[in-house]
Design a protein that fits this description.
The protein is an alpha/beta fold and 317 residues long. Strands 2-1-3-8-7-4-5-6 form an 8-stranded parallel sheet, with helices on both faces. It has one domain (3-316): Arginase, Chain A. The protein has 11 helices and 8 strands. α3 (66-85) packs parallel to α6.
Length: 317
C-alpha cells in the first residue's frame, strides 16, 4: 500500500486575480470544520514560493513574473521527483494558481524519463497559451504549452522581449527533457472556455476533449473508462484538477469561473473512478480562491473531493 505525501505550493504569481495563495489554508480550515484529521494523518512538505514579486513592477509583459514562476516550478519539480521515486509514495499536490502544474509534470518526467506520461486535465480552460499568443500575460494560462513545447507561432500576436524568450526556453527545458508529454497524451475534461489560438493547437494535434455533456450522457463510470482507454499507450498518468472545472453555481471561489461546469459530486466520483487505474502516479488540485468565496464553500467542496480521492488511493494502490 502506498502512503500519501502532500506537497503544498502557495504560489499565486501566475494568476491575474489575487487570493489563490490562500486556497490551501482554506482547504485545511474545511478539513477542521468537517472534523477530519487528513492533514495530520498524512505527511506534507511546503514548497517555498515567490509571492513577494507581486509587490514589484511587472517587467515581462507577455509572461508576467516568469523568473519567479520558473523558480517555483523548479522547486516543485524536485519535490515531485523525490516523491515519485520514493518507494510506496503517492504525491498529492495542492497548488495556488495553475501555472505550477508544469512543475508537477516536469518532476514526474524527471523521475521517469523513459516512461510515456499521460495527463488528464480537468479544467474549464486549456492553458495552452505561450508568450507569443497570450492575451493577458498571466502564466497560469501557459503550463500545457510549455509541457508540449509548442509556442503556436502560427498564431503569434505578441513580440516578447529577449529576456522573456530566454526564460521561456529555460522553463520548457527544465530537467533537460522536452517536451514533457505528447499532445496526443492529454485528455481535456470539462473544457469549455478557450481562445482561438488554443483551439488551433487542439485541432492541430487532434487533442481529445471530454465535455461536460458527454460525461453526463455516459455517466462517470463509462466516462472514466473511456478517458483511461484513450491513454492506454501511456505508462504513467497524472490527474490535474482545477476547481473552475466545476460550475460557478456551486461556488465562485476561483479566479476564472466558467458556466456549465460539472458538479462537485460528478468531479469526486469521476476522479475516484480514474484512481482505480494503477497507472495514476499523482493528483493535484489548483485555483481555490477563498477571497472570492462565501463561507468557504469552494474549499469545502474541494476537500470532499480530495478526501474521496485519497480514500481511493489508499484502497487501490
Amino acid at each position: 500500500m502506498k502512503a500519501i505525501k502532500i506537497i503544498e505550493v502557495k504560489s499565486e504569481i501566475g494568476a491575474g486575480t489575487r487570493g489563490a495563495s490562500m486556497g490551501i489554508d482554506a482547504i485545511k480550515i474545511a478539513a477542521l470544520d468537517f472534523g477530519s484529521y487528513f492533514f495530520k494523518r498524512n505527511k506534507s512538505v511546503k514548497v517555498p514560493v515567490e509571492n513577494r514579486l507581486l509587490l514589484d513592477p511587472i517587467k515581462n509583459e507577455f509572461a508576467k513574473r516568469i523568473k519567479g514562476v520558473y523558480t517555483v516550478n523548479e522547486r516543485l519539480a524536485m519535490e515531485v521527483k523525490k516523491a515519485v521515486e520514493a518507494p510506496n509514495m503517492f504525491p498529492i499536490v495542492l497548488l495556488g494558481d495553475h501555472s505550477a502544474a508544469y512543475g508537477t509534470l516536469a518532476g514526474i518526467k524527471m523521475a521517469c524519463p523513459d516512461k510515456r506520461l499521460g495527463l488528464i486535465w480537468i479544467d474549464a480552460h486549456a492553458d495552452l497559451h505561450s508568450p507569443y499568443t497570450t492575451p493577458s500575460g498571466n502564466m497560469h494560462g501557459m503550463p500545457l504549452a510549455a509541457a508540449i513545447d509548442d509556442d503556436n507561432l502560427e498564431n503569434k500576436v505578441n513580440n516578447p522581449d529577449e529576456e522573456t524568450i530566454q526564460w521561456w526556453e529555460k522553463l520548457k527545458n527544465m530537467g533537460g527533457i522536452r517536451p514533457k508529454l505528447l499532445p496526443s497524451d492529454i485528455v481535456f475534461v470539462g473544457l469549455r472556455d478557450t481562445e482561438a489560438q488554443e483551439n488551433f493547437l487542439i485541432k492541430k494535434h487532434g487533442m481529445r476533449i471530454y465535455p461536460v455533456s458527454e460525461i453526463r450522457a455516459k455517466g462517470v463510470e463509462r466516462a472514466g473508462v473511456e478517458v483511461l482507454n484513450h491513454l492506454d499507450k501511456c505508462d504513467i498518468i497524472h490527474i490535474s484538477f482545477d476547481v473552475d472545472s466545476m460550475d460557478p453555481s456551486i461556488s465562485r471561489g476561483t479566479g476564472t469561473p466558467a458556466k456549465n461546469g460539472i458538479t462537485e459530486k460528478e468531479a469526486g466520483n469521476f476522479i475516484s473512478r480514474l484512481l482505480y487505474s494503477k497507472k495514476i502516479v499523482s493528483f493535484e488540485i489548483a485555483e481555490i480562491n477563498p477571497t472570492l468565496d462565501h463561507e468557504n464553500i469552494m474549499a469545502e467542496n474541494a476537500f470532499e473531493i480530495l478526501q474521496k480521492a485519497a480514500n481511493q488511493i489508499t484502497r487501490t494502490i
